[in-house]
Fold each of these.
Amino acid sequence: MSNSAIPSSTIRMEGVSVAEFSWEVRSPLDRALVAGRHGAHGDAGVSLTEIRNFDLVQVMARRGKTSEMAKVAKARFGVTAPVTPQTAPTADATLIWSGPDQFFVLSKGGKHTMVALGQAFASCASLSDQSHARVLISISGAKARTMLAKLSSIDLHPAVLGVGAAAATSMDHTSVTLWRGGDRGEQAVFNLLVFATFAESLWHTMLDSAAEYGVTIGHSGELT
Amino acid sequence: MMAAAQTHRLTSGGLVDRSAPLSFRFDGQTFSGFKGDTLASALVANGVKLVGRSFKYHRPRGILTAGSEEPNALVELRSGARREPNTKATTAELYEGLEAASQNRWPSLNFDVMSVNQLFAPIFVAGFYYKTFMWPAKFWEAIYEPAIRRAAGLGRAAVASDPDLYDKAWAHCDVVIAGSGPAGLAAALAAGRSGARVILCEEDFVPGGRLLADGGTIDGLPAAEWLARTLAELASLPDVRIMTRTTLFGVYDGGTYGAIERVNDHLPSPPEHEVRQRLWRIVAKRCVVAAGALERPIVFAGNDTPGVMMASAMRSYIGRYAATPAKRIALFTNNEDGWRTVETALGAGLQVAAVIDARAEISPAHRSLASKSGFPVLHGSVSSVDGGKAGVRTLSVSLTGGSRAEVEADGLAVSGGWNPTVGLTSYHRGRPKWRDDIAAFVPDGAPPGMVAAGAANGAFGLGACLREGFEAGAAAARDAGRSGSAGSMPVADDEAYSLTPLWHVAGKGKAFVDQQHDVTASDIELAQREGFESVEHLKRYTTLGMATDQGKTSNVAGLAIMAAVAGRSIPETGTTIYRPPYVPVAIGAFAGHHRDENFHATRLTPSHHWAAEQGAIFVDTGLWKRAQWYPRAGEKDWLESVTREVKAVRSGVGFCDVSTLGKIDVHGPDAGAFLDRVYINTFSNLAVGKARYGLMLREDGFVYDDGTTSRLAEDHYFLTTTTAKAGLVMQHLEFCRQVLFPELDVQLTSVSDQWAQFSIAGPKTRDLLKEIVDPAEDLSNEGFPFMGVREVSLRGGIKARLFRISFSGEMAFEISVPARHGEALVRNLMIAGAPFGVTPYGTETLGVMRIEKGHVAGPELSGTTTAADLGLGKMMSTKKDFIGRVMAGREALVAANRQVVVGIKPTDRARRLRSGAHIIPKGLTPGPDNDQGYITSVCFSPTLDQWIGLALVERGRERIGEIVHAHDPLRGEDYDVELCNPVFYDPDGGRQRG
Amino acid sequence: MRITCPFCGERELGEFTYLGDAKPVRPAADAGEDAVYDYVYLRDNIAGVMSENWYHGGGCRAWLKVTRNTLTHEISAVEPAAGAGAAKVGA
């Protein structure tokens, strides 16, 4: 049985002891997202903004505990948690329907983390941290709806997907959560939560879909 | 080269823009046309009659129609990578610099060597291929096929990859309308005014349909004026969208429609970032098919001579394009509508040589038109045309009563009546019904939500088209829940039609039914005589209607001729089945964005970009890109790199990104009970802070998936799956939770993307971890025993989960951190591990180490193995029910002679093994009777310094030490191997527990 | 084809996965091999209206019982599985 030596190219650094390590966070779109312009020149028809560093917790009711979960949510957030594909914005969080008897709590600033919510919902819901499992992309601009129609099979007409409406759906065979935020001026804003490991692939597909309209690309730490 | 003058262009009229001349080339010659022309109308305007050679006989062919039904005027458009064969000149929009070439001729259109095929015509009859090339079979590839391919065929596809972009999009509406003629526009008006969301698809580049060529009076206004007013009104309705250059080509279940938009086909190449074509999936509550009707030819000898043209097409060229297909025309008609071409021609100042009308009676108005304009009306039929590649010269006419006449003309307009476009309404296996009064098939019902209106429904008059369209549009809006007022209906008179059916005029010479596939009337008669009596057989035997035009101008005439020969009626003969797409759709449009590197979505691991920086070689596993190995300078091949990686792990420490494993949070008071039912072993008794290997079966008793599942809290388990089955296991578990065991209080959430997870393996794993984990954490065997799980603090502040599990057989941990820290973790592992020679390793090394350790993976979890086959039978609990328990106990699944996992080593140490080789007992002949299993996984083991493998072998575990024969017919290899313990490395497990 | 998910609304086929006949019921633990064999393998080949299990995996991850005509693809009813969402059976 051979136990061959460590390859000679390895340099042993005796006595190296690193007291502390840096644990910087890096978005899955860190490489793919190049802030600035993409595609056709002139007025950009589409604006793509990645929202970074948010807290996202999925809250799923336990069997027979939907009304209790609703009460806890109402007490904590001051709004009724969505029971249909809708969102419920509060001062410091957005509750987003993510399936039957479940919703996401999207927030910033550490007020609604797993630990904080876990205590509140302990008796009635199962919580799962999704803060690192998703990438959040905000899509707006005059051509946002046109561009999304290339990716999304659902009806994006303003009378069908109104402000605050949400959908658990797929884009490019990838599960996403889509919802309409508040309009920016005259323009609709679409928010998209996509699985982190799919994000770069979907990002490139979005850029390709939007290129003909001209794209403004950026990232932000602020929830819209 | 100077462009030739447009010798056949009228000085005024038409919808071409004379202020925008365009120059183009056809077969190398330069011509000019105008914006608003098609390639066909521009060729007509330049007096070009000969545009192609036919498929089989290489006969000279001209332009027959002015639309997408064209069988003859097919060209190769553009050049190089953008060369597109079989493009219809009749729909190709003219643009500056357009280049087109005729097809199927050599060396030139005017002198085509292959036209000698006509001399051999008797052998090219129906069923020619079937009869002629019967034997010997080997001649097919060597002789027949190449010869046929040279002699027959259409255009040449581009060899280079298509440089253009295509995409796909979804649209939603209440009412989708196919066609923007009078019926379609009236439908759009009614539906749009009612408040419906409307999409109107028009395959032409200008809306209007027959109004563009035929004019008329609507609501007291000239058609053009009404059209402009209507389009303006539709444009003012916010939810009405008119899509020109868009063909609605198919209908699918649930009110989904396919449409192809030729976004930039009218330009030499698409503008930067723009697509050439876009495939639309339109979801509509209702559909109005206002696709109009197609004029049908009459079959007679020489009916394919250049200059013979459909009467309505001739009107289009003269009326819409101000281009004159001939100076002196004749009309051959069996109906009143054909006469409109005479009126149009006279209006444009052309000579009319004669009208040959097959009917007994013609209207007094037309009789007086003839006498006033000084042309004869001949009662009878055109029996043959004399002319050649230069076009029509003389017509022979069989007069009613038996005598003959000759007519000198350079163009012949033919009208055999009109066939409603019944494709869309028939695509769900609908069969159209026959209407005697118009001698045509009309829709007989339609897919749910769809209705035909206007000419597509057999209503040919302008007034009827407007009425039917308007009513259909209003009803569709109402059905979609829109209650606004449709306003007033546009009104027009109905023209007379009065048709006497005539399909085929007997005569000498080739009379073509399907001009694109060169199917003649006599081919149909021959097929009938030979017993091909069903229309579906006729179609396949003669290839009638099987060309790129799908028989739009030929099918009904073919049926009529067949019916006449068989002595049956046309409805008795029936139609073939209609199938989408209505027009050919480029594969590129169906693929859209999904080509090349975008063929499918990809998933990237948290360490992907770091691994790329290291020069890792990636392998596609499902959607994932995984680092396969990390080559270093000077290493000559993958084997050298992998061997180094394995040795480094076994003697020091290495790490591998295992984030691709499926990870599922299993929550709830009944989480343990739930896992007991889905795994063969028990999880409800697993202590918090412990991990256990679990195996799942399918309900049929075979192994489904495996993985390690940990208990993080009383009501929280963390389950892992294999990479390959992650999505399927999630689906399966949700099925168990929602359908099979709804009584259990358990919740499932995928957390695959939440965690970056790395396996750290090797005897120096603890040394490395001590550098990175908070010093207060006890990693000793006592403080963190094998299969222990705990959250730990890492130096610098973040929390991680540590799992003491091993796939490699080494002392190992898996560490996971929230995914956005994944790249930081991998960089920190490199820093912390540097003193210990830490080595990143890829999936190859992972695979080698698991084979050395005898762990099963994908090749052994093949869907045909039981837990016992894998040596894991003892895991199967007898104290509880679980998925697959009962079926796993079936006789054949517990038989003593099952093929079970065993290790193999070649008797010749230098020998390379390959998976897939069959295991045959020594001394027996390889073959199915003696086949006792096969090699599933192999690798070169750096640890043993030889190739080793795993195999599924009959009674394998009882035969350790036996020499058997490996037979690999695929690679032509035969060699002996020894059956051995599958755990090649550290069989008592001391290393991973140490 | 389009399926109206009771939770999400009407969605295109691509968001769903088909499993098969929803009629067979998993036998009790002591039902014996024959009953399980029937459950696993025996299926009617229905030309007409059929009750089927579909998974809205590309959407809300609910399992659905879909009543579909296999001849026309007409869908006449869609119900959530007993355990979709948090409802407790019988509660």
Amino acid sequence: MKITVCIGSSCHLKGSRQVVEQLQYFIRENELGDKVELSGTFCMGKCQQGVCVTVDDAFHSVSPDTVKDFFFENVLEKVK
Amino acid sequence: MRKFDTKVQHLKYKVLRETAREAWADRLHETALDIPKRIVPDKIPTMRCCVYKERAILADRVKMAIGGDKSNPNVIEVIDIACDECPMGGYDVTNACRGCLAHRCEDVCRFGAITFDKNYVAQIDKTKCKECGACAKVCPYSAILNFKRPCESACKIKAITMGDDKQAKIDNSKCISCGACVYQCPFGAITDKSFILNVIDMLKKSERKHYKVYAVVAPSISSQFRYAKLGQVISGLKALGFHTVIEAALGADMVAQAESKELTEKGFLMSSCCPAFVSYVEINFPELVQYISHNLSPMATIAKYVKEKDPTAKVVFIGPCTAKKAEVQKPEVGKYVDAAMTFEELQALFDSRDLEITELTEDVLDNASYFGRIFARSGGLSDAMAQGIKEQGLDFEFKPRACDGIEECRIALLQKSRGKLDANFIEGMACVGGCIGGAGCLTHGEKNKAEVDKYGMEAYEKSIRDAIALCSL
């Protein structure tokens, strides 16, 4: 599974670093390092919906407050 | 608010704007020859002896706007017919000399170059004069003036000479493409080649060929386009067709991190950020090249990262610098940066599309930390290095020498080559003030340093570590 987080200016200001740090933490805690690839990109063109995240090709709007739910629903459930 | 410092810049801008306008419309090859007449439509000259000479010079400016002389590797060129063949006499006594008794000029001259005629009027013996200017400083009537050409005065590395035809000549074996002469020539006879046609071409084809064009902007942008908001400049860039805009300062954060580590490992280092400084060392102090940091410049570092994330990306650097145009011609940089342009040229691109940026909504630009952003002014790189050492907990007594302008660089390099430099890091910036003093800036002002610091303080990330955290992805 490939998770891509937008690290462009708009998403950065909405907390993409915090989202990335939490995702890195959850991936480590759940020992998914070999199943989930986390990467970054500059701007997905949907700045209004940031922080923009894609899981494989599916788009998600995430924030530092919702990243935990996002991880359990869209990453952990699907990888297992 | 004034968009340019001088009318020379304004004229150059008009040529770039009209050339770009025709290029967007795909008709430049038919209309290029009409551009001079469009800029000087009337029969009454306003700049030179006649409109025909004005137009002939403008035709040469169009040539520079479309890339200049391909056989000349230097990005800086003299427009021969625009050079006014200024007097080149050096220091001379004018008729303001009253033939006084004090003879301060004679006393202060260490070379015995001052004598007096039968009317007690001072004369300068050109064979003895070293052009130190001491006599001019002490004359109570300000009667001694320096008639050195502005281009020669601007060129601190003495790469400009006069040919037999009295026209300025650039010695390519010495020139570091800093652009000082470009900004200082009052007739606009020395100018930097433009590569905006490549940029327009990249932007036009991006949709059809399915690649994205990224704008990487230098942090000195904070002192530019002051008639609008920075966020509106970002919106303007996207309206031109850039996919997104990224701060070169994020590359500066990455450089500060890597370079501070490199310094503590090697014990002595010189910065690699300023391409004109790097060229200066290569030409004049080859034995010191070994000390230049192995890091790419911030521009190339961030462009490399962009292309790792998006292999089909095209990257355009937009900054204050003419020497960056030379840097991107190096193969090791050119593979990451597809074109470099100046703030002057960006203004021309906006207006070629009739984009009034003050009417656009404000977008955002925030990738880097305070420390990456202050690279734009002299001393900023040294501050960022100190921070990089601190954040990484490196045990090192940091003694930087921040060289503000190429003359200070020369002094530090001379000291280093003689083993007399009391510092373990040279921050080399060819332009006085740092990048905010660059020749490609629209305006140069006293407040520019304060603008850069203010912009730095506004950064969302407060440390280098946090700014580059995302770049580990």
